[in-house]
Amino acid sequence: MIKNVNHIGIAVSSIETALPFYTETLGLTFEAVEHVAEQRVRVAFINAGNCKLELLEPTSPDSPVAKFIEKRGEGIHHVALSVESIEDRIQEMIEKGIPMIDKQSRVGAGGANIAFMHPKASNGVLVEFCEKAAKHHDN
Fold this sequence. Notes:
Mean pLDDT: 93
Radius of gyration: 15 Å
Helix content: 10-25%
Oligomer: single chain
Strand order of the largest sheet: 2-3-4-1-5-8-7-6
Largest sheet: 8 strands, mixed
Distance between the termini: 31 Å
């Protein structure tokens, strides 16, 4: 069911302020920044070897990440797990009585299909299912 930890989302007030810790202090590789309009965030992708880190910067005071920072401060926002057949995984969780924020997948950063469990299902940890978009190759 779960393939691996895909990424860890980290809520930050400013990507520009937070990024040097990961790139300069830790020596990790910055990959790109993407604006995810639907979630009202900018996302900085950092390669941490077998797992990505995503720095999540709110672009609006009413975004979920802005509300998270206001309530809890900066820090780990969610853990994303790679899955196959995300719609089947969502249905499986619903059948097990796990409360899902997303009853069907939606498009997230990098074009991946994503869905979040409610954190009350997992001891306060926001868990995301993530199914990467299929890559098309021209032959």
